Each structure stands twice: as structure tokens, then as C-alpha cells.
Amino acid sequence: MVIPGGLVVLTDRRSAAGPLVSVVEAAIRGGAAWVILRERDLPYGERAALAGELRALLPPGRLIVAGPDPLGGDAVHLAEADPPPRAGVKVVGRSAHGTCQTSTEDYVTLSPVFPTKTKPGYGPALGPEKAAALAGDVPWLALGGIDTPSRAAACMAAGARGIAVLGAIMRADDPERAAADLAAAR
């Protein structure tokens, strides 16, 4: 099993600066290694079709679907309240906000690490060191407000396996460049 790391892009078609698939494709060209498909409000058929389109852009197993249904794949990312996925899912992540209680998850996202424009007022911001302390021995991705290479580097220096980014990629005029800048931060 491969655990997500590096630059992980979270989708948000409503804030994307262009067509969602095009923005994600540019981010992948820029160095995004994984994609988490959110878009939980789409009807099942549309969401499954979108998962197929995104899956075709990535190496096998690198699309993670938010929610317990992997939509034909084998990786999911669960909200704090989501039930466990059905059998056959190889990679399970879970969102954590201020606490980190895992049971069978392979990784967690901890957020918000920094204040975030996507969810203003959401927090308080943990900071990279507190996020690392909350994760303990669980592999973790930093999420929230990671919009500069220096913030990405601070998360990696604190022990994050990667950074999960939504706004800095989705709203970017040049998502490929934004992804390249964040992916290069160490």
C-alpha cells in the first residue's frame, strides 16, 4: 500500500479558475502526485464520471475519493463522521481537526494548519508543530492555508508526508506553476 504524500490536490469545481478537469490536469503537470475528489454534492452518476476522468490523468491508485464509496477505485478519504468504507478499499484517510483519533486509517489530514481563505474563520490554526504532535505516529498531510512555498516547507519540516491544497491550486491563474512552486518546497 502506498500512502499519499507530496502535493495532494483537493478539488472544488466552484472555486476553480477554469474547468475542473483542466485545472487538475495542470496541477498534475506541475507536480501534484495525488488528487482527492470532493464534489460530494454531485449526483452519483456525474461524480462517478468525474472520478473516471480524473483517474485517467493519474498513475493507478492516485485518485482518492472523499466519502466511503471509492467510485470504482480503491482509495477513500473520510470526514470525521463518515462510516468506514466497504471491503476492498486499499487506502483510507480521515480528516481531523484539533484531535487525531484513528483506528484503521492509513493517514490523516490535519487542518487548518494555517488560516485559510477557503474557510475563513475556521480554526484556530494549528501550526505545523501542533499538527505533527497531534498526528503522533500516524502519517499525516497538512491542510489549510498552505498557499506559499515557505508554508509548504514548514509543514514538511514538521514531519508531514505531504501537503493537501485546495485554494492555492483551484483559484490560481496558473495552476501548473502554483503546483510546481508548492511541490518543490522542502
From TrEMBL:
Condenses 4-methyl-5-(beta-hydroxyethyl)thiazole monophosphate (THZ-P) and 2-methyl-4-amino-5-hydroxymethyl pyrimidine pyrophosphate (HMP-PP) to form thiamine monophosphate (TMP). InterPro entries: Aldolase_TIM (IPR013785), ThiamineP_synth_sf (IPR036206), ThiamineP_synth_TenI (IPR022998). Pfam families: TMP-TENI (PF02581). Pathway: Cofactor biosynthesis; thiamine diphosphate biosynthesis. This is Thiamine-phosphate pyrophosphorylase. One of its GO terms (biological process) is thiamine biosynthetic process. Keywords: Thiamine biosynthesis. It comes from the Bacteria. GO terms for cellular component: cytoplasm. One of its GO terms (molecular function) is thiamine-phosphate diphosphorylase activity. Signal peptide: none annotated. Residues 7-169 form the Thiamine phosphate synthase/TenI domain. PANTHER family: THIAMINE-PHOSPHATE PYROPHOSPHORYLASE, THIAMINE-PHOSPHATE SYNTHASE. Gene3D superfamilies: Aldolase class I (3.20.20.70).
